[in-house]
């Protein structure tokens, strides 16, 4: 009995840590609608700052807690600077665009932290006065765990009081419900947003600072927490702080007990819980309908077919690409294959997000299924390259058919997070099921057939498949089916009123996007010769998301611009020292210069140069 | 006007392709070596490694190079992604004219590059990845590996663990191939030496995401006599801290893989556990002429003591230099022939050779115990374990490899 009680307490201590970071994320999203990828960076920087201040002060109990608060406060100030210099300028950009900026911030923070604090992990001191364990029912419980168990609910109570007993808090809640109305009532939104962002950053910094008696401060802290923090926010219901608390407790306690029975479960447990919760409750445990937010804005202009001149430019570009192997060296063809794969992947994601209005944080699932299906057909069934290439996208389609059925029942951020859960569960199975998928050692030896093994021949195979896929998606976007999808995106109610089966159309849109992502995965697998679980990972999904958003979600050409720019810039900057800093900086510059994405920026540029043109990148 | 505009636009479209044309071959008096590693993903380990190979290159070039030719390393960051690593490897070979590739840290990237090496027929020296698969189940003609593998280091620990009275063992290892391999090797080696041991609990925390408190509790619940630990880095610090808080290590022996390496031992600071049996590297205490010379040169150049990565980087280049000298050419077939049974007669860690049967080097590791000496974490009572003693015989090892 004592043992299980102790395990429960361990789970609750973890829950407090998780809650602190998730609460800040939830507040920021609730008020500003920013999906803040940089939240993990705030957490990490909070921990590093606390380490530095604690060790510099070395001032006993008072010094320790002062350092924690000071570190959190500094992170709050950093949050304010980021909000005022970057985010405030792009609130009018399409929904979700701000997450590109926070992605740039993540990159910059990673290299800045490395430069300031060095590569080695730093083990801070234990909390003075709380550095031992006490016996409860005969089991040793660290005193600091008990402190954390108290701090979590205390912070929750503090936030509750702030939100219910102060005018500012009431405004924040009002803005979470309906920010246009709050603005209409004359509240200065800019400062409300700044304050919410600062509070969120402060809480993330506090969460990180409070970790130093428990773990070594390391450069992996940011990415290792961010996924789980999002999961907690979504399970709790977007914008609901008490929901985040319940979700944090649920996940942490479940994990503490699950590892007694099935230790391997930890890698996917939060995502399984999230998937179950979202299937049963489409708005999370405490979220309200309408808290999903992403997607429904004012309807955009109808798609235009390209003007004759734009078509000529496009054809010229395709011709240049087609003839490039004749003038460039082999390794350039390799890079261009990567560019084409990324482009098809981004275009398929854009089809889902831009045309279908369904944001995905887990599009890599279908890319990875395509890659793995092809690799397994070659390795285990002895298929040739071409049959594997043709059949594998159907497996991606099947996966999309299955997961899509669940996903299209949700909307906005909840839908996005369910796609992420699907991808993570697939990733976990692939990672764990070593006998079948090779686990993280992957599947090797998936090279093109003999006749296609030269880089130039494979370039043309990739050229045909990727450009064919892009052309197909473009055709579908201009087809009645594509128009119906766009109609559903712009107004689900009206689409239903005229007799469209909205769920079915979205489901099929999901499948089309998934299949084409699978095709990209197939081309990828044969160009690299091996597949690893990374192809299904969050990083792959996020790369795609950044390409689409950076390129411009409102233009069909957006994902093409985005993918080409992303791959080319990354290939170039990784040659440099501190490239993440530079890459992050480039992303921020693009974001600030072109809040409508690269496609929008290019369009404006063309119109500025050629005033009589209407711009063709539709 | 329209025509002009189209021409201009067409030219603009072609612009990005410039600079991708074939490059002029390297000057004839240098030998270009390609290097790929996870510099941004795992700087704690790869920074010392980079310094190690830089020092070796500098020393070899200062001594006149290889047959009068200077060595030049072109080093790139793989960003922790196997697909990127392959693109870079391709570029190093095709564009930069690298005669061979070395490096990589993460096992999956090591495997991806080794598969690439086989496909493109270029020599690859896997410096750091520990995975047994690289030389055994997925070994190939073009891939050699320097560092003592998971299996070897686990066997070194099993040998020491067998001397303990402990019968009931629990294991904790990160949930990925490295952890799986290590636990499997430790179990089989220990059971060979001590058929009476039993394994009563396994914990598999996700790598870099350990829930240390719960894991410690789960281990404690099985009441083992001893624990075999494979966690490292941040997970290790958390595990040590939560474990000692909860008295997990009281009266229990712990055998711990890699924990004696300065990269992992140093961050533990004054919380370093006492008397854990570990594999690692005690840079300050090795008193051989070769090591003293290396350590002095390294400290003079970089202002810090060498770490395990430094040794790995340094020995990689020594091995490459020996192979180039022996081959007398940069032709891949000649290099492959030279690598078979290649002996490196003098290195900071002593002589080692590359076994022809499974392409594994016999470079060893240091086995000892952790201790706090004057407030500094150290390895004490250590001995050098020559890798050759912990490998299966060449005949057995050859059977572990796929037929060629």
From TrEMBL, chain A:
GO CC, alphabetical: plasma membrane
Transmembrane residue ranges: 6-29, 41-58, 64-82, 144-163, 190-210, 230-251, 257-280, 311-328, 388-408, 415-437, 457-473, 507-526, 546-569, 581-602
GO BP terms, alphabetized: amino acid transport
Subcellular location field: Cell membrane
Lipid bilayer topology: Multi-pass membrane protein
Keywords assigned by UniProt, alphabetized: Amino-acid transport, Cell membrane, Membrane, Transmembrane, Transmembrane helix, Transport
Single annotated GO MF: branched-chain amino acid transmembrane transporter activity
Family according to the record: Belongs to the binding-protein-dependent transport system permease family. LivHM subfamily.
Protein name: High-affinity branched-chain amino acid transport system permease protein LivH
TrEMBL record, chain B:
Protein species of origin: Falsiruegeria mediterranea M17
GO BP of this protein: amino acid transport
Family listed: Belongs to the leucine-binding protein family.
Pfam families the UniProt entry points to: Peripla_BP_6
Recorded superkingdom: Bacteria
Signal sequence, renumbered to the chain: 1-27
Domain Leucine-binding protein: residue ranges: 45-369
Database matches in CDD domains: PBP1_As_SBP-like (cd06330)
Record-given protein name: Aliphatic amidase expression-regulating protein
InterPro entries: BCAA_transport, Leu-bd, Leu_Ile_Val-bd, Peripla_BP_I
Keywords, sorted A to Z: Amino-acid transport, Signal, Transport
């Amino acid at each position: 009995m004592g043992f299980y009680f102790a395990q429960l307490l361990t789970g609750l201590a973890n829950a407090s840590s998780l809650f602190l970071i998730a609460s800040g994320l939830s507040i920021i999203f609730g008020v500003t609608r920013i999906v803040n990828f940089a939240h993990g960076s705030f957490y990490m920087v909070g921990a590093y700052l606390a380490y530095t201040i604690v060790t510099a002060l070395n001032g006993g109990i008072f010094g320790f807690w002062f350092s924690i608060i000071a570190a959190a406060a500094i992170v709050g100030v950093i949050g304010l600077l980021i909000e005022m210099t970057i985010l405030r300028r792009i609130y009018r950009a399409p929904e979700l665009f701000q997450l590109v900026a926070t992605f740039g911030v993540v990159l910059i923070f990673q290299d800045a932290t490395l430069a300031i604090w060095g590569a080695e992990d730093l083990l801070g001191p234990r909390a003075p006065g709380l550095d031992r364990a006490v016996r409860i029912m005969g089991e040793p419980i660290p005193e600091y765990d008990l402190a954390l168990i108290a701090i979590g609910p205390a912070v929750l109570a503090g936030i509750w009081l702030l939100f219910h007993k102060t005018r500012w808090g009431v405004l924040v809640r009002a803005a979470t419900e309906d920010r246009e109305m709050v603005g209409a009532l004359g509240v200065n939104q800019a400062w409300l947003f700044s304050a919410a962002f600062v509070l969120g950053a402060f809480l993330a910094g506090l969460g990180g600072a409070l970790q130093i008696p428990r773990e070594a401060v390391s450069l992996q802290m940011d990415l290792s927490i961010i996924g789980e923090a999002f999961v907690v926010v979504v399970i709790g219901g977007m914008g609901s702080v008490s929901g985040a608390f319940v979700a944090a407790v649920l996940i942490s306690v479940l994990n503490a007990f699950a590892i007694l029975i099935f230790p391997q479960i930890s890698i996917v447990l939060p995502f399984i819980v999230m998937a179950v919760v979202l299937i049963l409750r489409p708005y999370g445990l405490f979220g309200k309908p309408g808290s999903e937010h992403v997607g429904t804005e004012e309807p955009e202009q109808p798609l235009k077919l390209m003007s004759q001149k734009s078509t000529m430019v496009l054809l010229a570009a395709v011709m240049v690409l087609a003839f490039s192997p004749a003038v460039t060296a082999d390794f350039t063809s390799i890079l261009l294959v990567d560019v084409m794969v990324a482009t098809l992947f981004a275009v398929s994601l854009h089809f889902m997000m831009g045309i279908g209005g369904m944001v995905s944080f887990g599009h890599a699932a279908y890319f990875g299924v395509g890659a793995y299906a092809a690799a397994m057909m070659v390795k285990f069934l002895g298929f040739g390259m071409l049959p594997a290439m043709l059949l594998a996208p159907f497996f991606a389609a099947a996966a999309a058919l299955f997961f899509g059925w669940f996903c299209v029942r949700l909307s906005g951020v909840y839908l996005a997070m369910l796609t992420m859960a699907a991808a993570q569960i697939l990733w976990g199975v692939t990672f764990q099921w070593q006998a079948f998928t090779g686990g993280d050692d992957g599947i090797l030896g998936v090279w093109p057939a003999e006749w296609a093994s030269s880089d130039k021949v494979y370039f043309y195979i990739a050229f045909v498949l990727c450009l064919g896929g892009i052309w197909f998606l473009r055709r579908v976007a201009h087809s009645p089916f594509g128009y119906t999808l766009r109609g559903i995106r712009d107004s689900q109610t009206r689409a239903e009123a005229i007799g469209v089966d909205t769920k079915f159309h979205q489901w099929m849109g999901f499948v089309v996007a998934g299949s084409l992502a699978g095709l990209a995965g197939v081309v990828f697998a044969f160009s690299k010769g091996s597949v690893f679980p990374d192809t299904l990972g969050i990083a792959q999904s996020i790369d795609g998301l950044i390409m689409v958003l950076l390129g411009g979600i409102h233009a069909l050409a957006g994902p093409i611009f985005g993918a080409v720019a992303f791959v080319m810039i990354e290939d170039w900057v990784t040659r440099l020292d501190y490239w993440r800093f530079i890459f992050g900086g480039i992303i921020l510059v693009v974001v600030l210069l072109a809040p409508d994405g690269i496609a929008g920026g290019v369009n404006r540029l063309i119109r500025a140069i050629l005033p009589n043109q209407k711009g063709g990148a539709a | 006007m329209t025509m002009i505009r189209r021409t201009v636009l067409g030219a603009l479209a072609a612009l990005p392709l410039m600079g991708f044309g074939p490059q002029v071959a390297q000057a004839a008096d240098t030998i270009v070596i390609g290097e790929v590693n996870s510099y941004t993903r795992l700087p704690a380990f790869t920074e010392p490694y980079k310094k190690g190979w830089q020092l070796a290159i500098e020393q070899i070039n200062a001594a006149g190079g290889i047959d009068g030719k200077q060595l030049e390393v072109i080093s790139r960051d793989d960003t922790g992604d196997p697909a990127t690593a392959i693109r870079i490897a391709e570029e190093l070979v095709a564009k930069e004219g690298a005669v061979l590739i070395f490096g990589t840290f993460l096992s999956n990237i090591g495997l991806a590059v080794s598969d690439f090496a086989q496909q493109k027929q270029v020599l690859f020296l896997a410096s750091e990845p520990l995975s047994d698969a690289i030389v055994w189940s997925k070994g190939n003609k073009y891939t050699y590996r320097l560092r003592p593998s998971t299996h070897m280091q686990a066997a070194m620990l099993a040998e020491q663990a067998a001397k303990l009275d402990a019968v009931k063992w629990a294991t904790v290892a990160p949930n990925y191939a490295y952890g799986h391999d290590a636990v499997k090797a430790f179990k089989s080696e220990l059971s060979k030496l001590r058929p009476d041991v039993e394994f009563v609990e396994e914990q598999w925390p996700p790598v870099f995401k350990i829930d240390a408190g719960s894991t410690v509790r789960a281990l404690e619940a099985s009441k083992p006599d001893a624990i075999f630990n494979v966690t490292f880095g941040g997970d290790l610090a958390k595990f040590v801290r939560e474990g000692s808080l909860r008295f997990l290590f009281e009266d229990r022996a712990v055998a711990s893989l890699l924990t004696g390496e300065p990269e992992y031992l140093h961050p533990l600071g004054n919380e370093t556990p006492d008397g854990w049996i570990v594999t690692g590297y005690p840079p300050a205490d090795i008193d051989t002429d070769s090591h003293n010379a290396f350590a002095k040169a390294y400290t003079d150049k970089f202002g810090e003591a060498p770490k395990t990565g430094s040794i790995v980087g340094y020995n990689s280049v020594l091995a490459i230099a020996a192979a180039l000298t022996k081959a007398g050419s940069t032709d891949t077939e000649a290099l492959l022939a030279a690598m078979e049974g290649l002996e490196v007669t003098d290195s900071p860690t002593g002589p080692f050779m590359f076994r022809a049967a499974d392409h594994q080097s016999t470079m060893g590791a240091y086995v000892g115990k952790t201790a706090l000496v004057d407030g500094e974490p150290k390895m004490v009572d250590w001995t050098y374990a020559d890798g050759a003693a912990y490998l299966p015989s060449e005949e057995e090892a050859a059977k572990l490899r796929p037929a060629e």
